[in-house]
Write a structure and sequence with these properties.
This protein has 296 residues and is mainly α. The chain has helices at residues 2-14, 32-39, 41-61, 63-74, 78-92, 95-105, 112-119, 131-159, 163-171, 176-187, 189-206, 208-215, 250-260, 264-295, and strands at 17-18, 27-28. It has 14 helices and two strands, in the order H-E-E-H-H-H-H-H-H-H-H-H-H-H-H-H. A two-stranded antiparallel sheet has the order 1-2. Helix 9 (163-171) runs antiparallel to helix 10 (176-187).
Length: 296
């Protein structure tokens, strides 16, 4: 219990203090951290971009893995098992190693992607340095692992479907599409809802490592300093802009507040807000699942 609730209580205590992780005398400021944090445009923009990440990840969390799982399910055998294992391989790779590999691959002028495109006479944008491409690239890179994991989850759901109901539908004259639409897909509805809810809740966490390694919240200055005295008390030059980059999201914003700007109070206030939001979201999901189970 102490390992779970101890850090939560400590984070809550820090959220009402003005402390830079160095000063020996933190100052109690009450809810000022919350008011100031959510009054900044960069925090609002980070929340909006988190929504963009959610929208971008949804097809990779549901439609694409479900389609792949259905294709493998319709062709059972060793080949399907081999393809499933191959699809799952990105899940076992360390996120940090994957992000570093992509950073080298997408490096301007020296990266493999740029070399191939330039050699083919095609234009090669600055994938991670252009605000128009950076966020979509982060989404696609992260999507590989999400697709891999969710293919396995959809495959597990498909394994629980009684094939006799499918054979009965075929005997009644249903086509392959009709069988999938009216027999198979309804039995996958719970899995789709669960994975959609999971994507909405934690999509921002999924992309954190890639954002931290590939762009540090940028481009467009997400890692810019706040000005002289950024690690000092409020008012000592800490009023400069805290950065607002094209790939920033609420989770990287938390990291930046704590470890780029050394504002333990603001970082803790954001952490408390995120934790409370996730608790409500997961509680709602659990309640919906219980109601669905009771209805059956």
């Amino acid at each position: 219990m102490i390992w779970v609730y101890g850090p939560l209580l400590w984070t809550g205590a820090l959220s009402v203090l003005d402390w830079n992780l160095i000063s020996p005398d933190p100052e109690f400021v009450g809810v000022e951290n919350y008011v100031e944090l959510f009054g900044r445009p960069e925090t609002t923009n980070a929340i909006v971009r988190t929504g963009f990440y959610v929208l971008g990840m949804l097809p990779f969390a549901t439609v694409i893995p479900m389609t792949l799982a259905l294709l493998l399910w319709r062709r059972p055998g060793r080949a399907a098992e081999a393809y499933r294992a191959l699809l799952f391989s990105p899940v076992v790779l360390a996120p940090l190693a994957t992000a570093i590999s992509w950073k080298f691959l997408l490096s301007p002028e020296q990266g493999l992607v740029d070399t191939v495109l330039s050699g083919s006479g095609l234009p090669s944008p600055n994938w991670l340095g252009d605000p128009r491409t950076a966020l979509p690239v982060i989404v696609v890179i992260t999507a590989g692992k999400i697709v891999a994991l969710n293919v396995v989850l959809f495959s597990a759901a498909l394994a629980g479907i009684d094939r006799r109901s499918i054979e009965a539908a075929r005997i009644d004259g249903a086509t392959g599409w009709e069988t999938t639409r009216y027999v198979v897909l309804p039995q996958l509805a719970r899995t789709v809802v669960l994975l959609t809810a999971l994507c909405v809740v934690v999509a921002g966490q999924w992309v954190f490592t890639n954002v931290a390694v590939l762009t540090r919240g940028g481009p467009d200055g997400a890692t810019g300093r706040r000005g002289d005295g950024a690690t000092g008390r409020r008012g000592d030059g800490a009023t400069g802009r805290r950065g607002d980059g094209a790939t920033d999201n609420i989770y990287y914003r938390l990291y930046a507040e704590g470890f780029d700007f050394f504002d333990a109070g603001a970082a803790s206030a954001l952490a408390v807000t995120i934790t409370a939001t996730l608790a409500v979201a997961f509680g709602a999901i659990a309640s919906a699942r219980r109601r669905s189970h009771d209805a059956r």
